[in-house]
Specification:
Radius of gyration: 20 Å
Distance between the termini: 46 Å
Largest sheet: none
Order of helices and strands: HHHHHHHH
Helix content: over 70%
Number of helices: 8
Shape: globular
Mean pLDDT: 80
Number of domains: 2
Length: 196
Amino acid sequence: MHAIFEYLPLVIFFIFYKVFDIYWATASLIATSALQILYYFVKRQPVPTRNWVFFGLIAVFGGLTIFLHDDAFLKWKVTLINGFFALALLVSQYVFKKNLIKQFLSEALTLPEGVWNKLNLAWAMFFALCGILNIYVAFNFEQETWVNFKVFGLTGLTFVFAIGSIISLHKHLPEDGLPATEEAQDKQKNVELTKD
């Protein structure tokens, strides 16, 4: 249900694009993003940072797209969001010594610190790659191709990368599939050190 809520603005954007045009679609994206923020206020829950970032960027760049009748601003917004996520993951790990991926997933998984760091770096590189791919598609192909890439391509890439991440973590889990305890991790580290 939460995933549907997160992707709702994107779905509505796509529908409005197909029925009307890019400018109506942009307006719908701004409106649904604002409604997401309002939802958290009504539920008296803190608004996640990613929602504020997304809404701020879509309000500014979407507003410029509509006001100036130039879809380039909207196209850049996708790259900026991916760039923000990549930068946030890198800065949090290397400057503040906090692993954001670990903070999100540590309740579900227990992994060696080195694996958490690699996973964090892998996601940062993935977001950076998505940002670069978006710019390439946005300015080298027709608008409709870019919209399809934004809605289906980036969503599909994220899904595939998430599945790949889960598969790559499988070898770091105990045979019963449950998260490893700290004691098991220490034993694993000792085994890895002896191999080196």
